Task: inverse folding
């Protein structure tokens, strides 16, 4: 599972949402949510923005990029 998939699943479970409920909020299918969580598909940009707004996380946090913010050289 990707970092993003882990974050999506964690957000969904912490908010007691089913995959279908999150899918309805994002305007995608339940199958898409399942694929996002397994790292088999990445949400489109507009869905990432909506997910960030719903979860109150930045895109950096969703993608777990904050883990790399202290490095002296770019990856």
Result:
């Amino acid at each position: 599972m990707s970092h993003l998939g882990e974050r999506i699943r964690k957000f969904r479970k912490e908010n007691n949402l089913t995959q279908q409920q999150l899918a309805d909020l994002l305007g995608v299918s339940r199958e898409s949510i399942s694929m996002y969580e397994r790292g088999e598909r990445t949400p489109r940009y507009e869905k990432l923005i909506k997910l960030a707004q719903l979860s109150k996380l930045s895109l950096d946090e969703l993608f777990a990029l904050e883990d790399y913010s202290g490095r002296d050289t770019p990856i």
